[in-house]
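Backbones bend. To wit:
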Amino acid sequence: MSDFMLHAPQGANRPKRRVGRGSSSGLGSTAGKGNKGQQSRSGSAVPYVGFEGGQMPLYRRIARRGFSNARFKKEFSIFNLKQLEEKYADGETVNRESLKAKGLLSKNKTLIKILGDGDITKKLNIDVDKVSASAKEKIEKVGGSVKVAEEADKAKAETK
C-alpha cells in the first residue's frame, strides 16, 4: 500500500439500486415503497413539517396567547476591548462614526455595546449606547472616559 493510492478499497462503493425492474430483482412491483397510500405514489411528498394529512395542524389548533417581546427587542453590535485596542490610537474617541470609519460597524441602525474581553492600555473616550461594568472599570483604570447614551436618557427623564 502506498500513501498516494487514490481509489476506494474493494467493496466500499456499491452499485446503485435499480427499483421497479421486475419481481426477480427483489425491488419489483411496489419498488420498495410498500402498498398503497400517499407515500407510494409518484411525486409524493408530505407538504411541510407539521402536516397532518389535511387535518388542521396542531400549531393552528392551539390559540395564540401571551406576550412576545420580539417587536421591542433591542439589537446590539458588540465590540470587545481587544478590538478597540487594535484599531484605535491613544486619545481617540470611540463612537458610531469612528467605528464606521474604521470598518468595524456595518449596520447603521443597531445599538453599540462595549464588552470587557481583553486588556486596554490606551486612553480612549467612549461614547456609545451601552458599556459592561468590567469594560467601564478597565477603561477608567487607564484614564479613559465613558459616556453612555442610556444614562443620559435616564438623567433627562429624572429631571422632568
About this structure: The beta strands are 76-80, 93-94, 111-115, 125-128, 130-131, 145-148. The chain has a mean pLDDT of 87.
